[in-house]
Amino acid sequence: MGLRTVLTYEDYAALPADGRRYEIHDGQLSVMPAPGTRHQQVSRNLVVVLHLHVKERRLGEVFHAPTDCILTDTTIVQPDIVFIDAGRLSIISERGIEGTPTLVVEVLSPSTVHLDRGSKAQLSARHGVPFYWIVDPGIRTIDAYTLLAGAYQRAARFEGDEPRALPPFPDLVLEPAAIWA
């Protein structure tokens, strides 16, 4: 049994700018293909809606990929969307989000479903991210999870034609046409 090399942020920063999307999960390199166009449309629509709501109410900051979220020196991820509430803006640095964001949003792609629902959700829970959304453009749903006792529990689901608010934004009523258009 050989020794496992544990990668750090320094290793991550030295990776080539070759068009691939890299992350480090507990010291192990993860490489993902670029997202497809449907993923990008839905991600863009959602980030616009979130950004406008957050800015208007001065709730904090919203960032979209690629933005490094440095959970530890050996865990660096690039969620599709990240929200940091106003009380925690000090974790925003020039190189990325250095600490635990308030909300992580992952928009599913066929090639990343297992990561977004599995290891990335587990990493977010382990690092104390209070809210985690999984957006599925294929079936037009957003599952909103809340961290309870170290594990995510589904708190709400956005689906169908009914506008709905999701935690942590009780005053933001999402309109289906604005997200899936």
What features would you describe in this structure?
The model has no long low-confidence stretch (mean pLDDT 92). The radius of gyration is 16 Å and the shape is globular. It has four helices and 13 strands. Helix content is 25%, strand content 36%. It has helices at residues 9-13, 37-57, 113-126, 176-180, and strands at 21-25, 28-32, 60-64, 69-72, 75-77, 81-85, 97-98, 103-107, 131-136, 141-148, 151-158, 164-166, 169-174. A hairpin with a 2-residue loop joins β1 and β2. The strands form four sheets. Strands 3-6-8-9-10-11 form a six-stranded mixed beta sheet, with helices on both faces. Strands 5-4-7 form a three-stranded mixed beta sheet, with no helix packed on it. It has a two-stranded antiparallel ribbon with strand order 1-2. It is of the alpha+beta class. The chain has one domain: tt1808, chain A, CATH 3.90.1570. The longest helix is centred in the N-terminal third of the chain and has 21 residues, at 37-57.
List keywords for this structure.
single chain; 181 residues; tt1808, chain A; 25% helix
Oligomer: single chain
User: What would CATH call the architecture?
Assistant: Alpha-Beta Complex
- Pairing-aware structural class of the strands and helices? alpha+beta
Extended strand count: 13
Number of structurally distinct domains: 1
CATH superfamily: tt1808, chain A
Sheet with most strands: strand arrangement: 3-6-8-9-10-11
CATH T-level fold name: tt1808, chain A
Beta percentage is: 35-45%
Instruction: Report the mean per-residue pLDDT as an integer.
Output: 92
